[in-house]
Amino acid sequence: MTLQIKLESRTIDKVERMRKVYNFSAGPAMLPEEVLLQAQAEMLDWHETGMSIMELGHRGPEFKRVAEKAEADLRELMSIPKNYQVLFLAGGATTQFSMVPLNLFDGKRSADYVDTGIWSKKAIAEASRYGRVNVVAQTQHQDRLDYIPAQDQWTMNEDAVYLHYTPNETIGGIEFQWIPQTGNVPLVADMTSMILSRPVNVNDYGIIYAGAQKNIGQAGITVVIIREDLIKEPLPKTPALYSYKLHAEHNSFYNTPPTYSWYISGLVLAWMKHKGGVQAFYQQNLRKAKTLYSLIDQYKDFYISRVHPDCRSLMNVMFHLCNETLTPHFLEEAEKIGLTNLRGHRVSGGVRASIYNAMPEDGVNMLADFMMDFARRKG
Amino acid sequence: MTLQIKLESRTIDKVERMRKVYNFSAGPAMLPEEVLLQAQAEMLDWHETGMSIMELGHRGPEFKRVAEKAEADLRELMSIPKNYQVLFLAGGATTQFSMVPLNLFDGKRSADYVDTGIWSKKAIAEASRYGRVNVVAQTQHQDRLDYIPAQDQWTMNEDAVYLHYTPNETIGGIEFQWIPQTGNVPLVADMTSMILSRPVNVNDYGIIYAGAQKNIGQAGITVVIIREDLIKEPLPKTPALYSYKLHAEHNSFYNTPPTYSWYISGLVLAWMKHKGGVQAFYQQNLRKAKTLYSLIDQYKDFYISRVHPDCRSLMNVMFHLCNETLTPHFLEEAEKIGLTNLRGHRVSGGVRASIYNAMPEDGVNMLADFMMDFARRKG
Q: Distance between CA atoms of A87 and A225, rounded to whole angstroms?
């Protein structure tokens, strides 16, 4: 991708000032500056068509190009094998909480679910409406730390129609550092908050799905990577648009897709390729997470992580101040210097730094400096 | 709304050149130039937050403002009474083909549907999967013209749970010029292709829904205006996100909504208010449609409309060349002078000029001039 920035220097200056705001929102989240600049430059004239990409019919040759390029880039970035279809569907991951059971349940067998937090629980609640669900493992708590039990402690069912898990939980900040082994049982993963943050072997999965608003683009579109043998007739009375089969048969063009969201996803995927691909981001993400977790551990009388070091999230660094009365001051001071949206989820409280692919290392370093300074002043 | 255009003059010059392309696409469709300019200007810094609106969390105060303003403007533009809820939902109108029956069927009574074209038929096919559907009227054909039968010829059911119709059919270019009278039976309308193009009395309807990509904004979001007494538990096993009740209880914030699409809708709605509201657009739309239909009638040996004058669409002017072998030349020549996407739908063939609110009168006049010139040269 050639990032041709066509804007005037005044605008660029402004951008440089602006990006001194580092947005740690859990999602919708920060996007790469280059992507926003390109979207801005092309807003009224996409590739000399005289039109915005959002004005172009989804069945025209222009949007087809955008759609196909986005899929090709995602396939390349994740090395997606040919026997997997890639769908770009309207809505977020919550849509998939219904679609997975509606499309995989067969009216006989049950499904296995792993419960590691709030997003797992939502997926479980929805699946339970369509068939029998077994919760085969749950986050455990020991020595004040949350951890994911090793797989030999799970109560898996060999004849499960699938096993569903959430590799990363944004609210608790807990992440699998390993891939469950499920034998012939298809593994289904809600990768919304960690897709493209680290290498995965797609062959290990039956279905991977991810809402775009963290590592792929803007809210309103979800990527589904599905092994072809899992595409079949859904349960009776499944709404038309909840059928993977229908979408697969129409290459996600059965009805009007969210074209602009798809386009933004394409810009992000091209940017990732340009920047070295998943491996490069993984290395950067390891450095970013290490910077913050090391500081938390170093100032352990002031900051506390409640997640076991073996399953700390690369993407959502969740911590508390030991003296919780200082949390509002921490958030207020951070906000003032341009470190925004650090408040933890209302369920968990505390502080959450979401550091997806688009968060520059500078932003993380600035946060670490602030945390150190704050701890020294208030500790 | 103040449209503060912050871009450099070079960019603006370019815009003026660009808008010499008039895009007659049926949807996604042309957007107002002012809206695109504002979205462009705000792309990297929405209201001095230092962030794009697409990077901001949906539960933060910034996006809440955007969401509430869009709803307030829509309520004002359409004079929506207080006993109606306004929902902004992910997906397009096809989603509503399932949601309407899933939420209104009661397991006992049947629903009435009016079939005036391809979109009606799709709605009927989907509703038939959830309950008994009676097609109470269909487009008729007489003297080579399609027309909608008068209501005294319909076979309505007094105890129907609702009556569904499609006020405007984009593919056939056929539009109701009157509102069905259904007594106590709630009237449900798919207004995707005509919402905000003419005044409607919301009180006449139980539910109005409209995909955004024609008169409201970009693809990926749908507006639902629903009378509160119709909000109830959906049929069992309805997917969570297909429940109006759930969305109404959470003000469309149950899960992450398509925030950027919502924002663009807000810009379009504010632009409409700024330009005089629905009545002003209605007058302009009447003039635009009259310009084209008059020309078709004037050159009746060359162009033919197959829709009865009583139900010609204001938004989608559908016609054929009497000598169909000339159609490819017509489309090619039009394209060359910047009149794009005039090809009729593959089902209907011919020519279709979609002239939604954002299509300037200049664009329609330019098309009329071209049509006249082409007829004189080739006729």
A: 6
Interface test with A, best of B193, B261, B346 (most A CBs within 10 A): B261
Residues B89 and B210 in one domain: yes
The domain boundary residue, chosen from A253, A274, A295 = A274
| pLDDT at A10 (0 to 100) | 36
| Min Cα separation A143/chain B (Å) | 33
Please indicate if any CB of chain A lies within 8 Å of the CB of B36.
yes
Across-strand partners of A227? Answer: A84
Residue A46 belongs to some domain of the structure: no
Res. B100: pLDDT tops 80:
yes
CATH of the domain at A326: 3.90.1150.10
Q: How many domains does chain A have?
A: 2
For residue A91, list chain B residues with Cβ-Cβ distance below 8 A: 90-91, 241
**Chain A nearest CA to B10, separation (Å):** 8
In the listed set B274, B308, B324, which residue is the last one of a domain according to the structure?
B274
Q: Give the one of A10, A29, A260 whose C-beta lies nearest to B55's C-beta.
A: A29
B35, B48, B130, B218: best mutation site toward chain A, by most A Cβ within 10 Å? B218
B89, B196: one domain: yes
The complex's ipTM? 0.94
**Inside any domain, residue A193:** yes
User: Do B193 and B225 fall within a single domain?
Assistant: yes
Report yes or no on B47 lying in a domain. Answer: no
For B113-169, what is each residue's pLDDT tens digit?
999 999 999 999 999 999 999 999 999 999 999 999 999 999 999 999 999 999 999
pTM, whole model, 2 decimals?
A: 0.95
**CB A44 to CB B36 under 8 A?**
yes
Residue B319 in domain: yes
Question: Which of B18, B39, B51 comes nearest A50 by C-beta?
Answer: B18
User: Is the model's pLDDT at A269 over the cut of 50?
Assistant: yes
The answer on A261 and A224 residing in a single domain is yes
Which pLDDT does position B19 carry in this prediction? 65
Domain that holds residue A177: 53-274
Residues of B in contact with A130 (CB under 8 A): 237
| A19 and A75 within one domain | no
Mean pLDDT score, A147-166: 97
- CA-CA distances (angstroms) from residue B69 to A198, B63, B105? 39, 10, 33
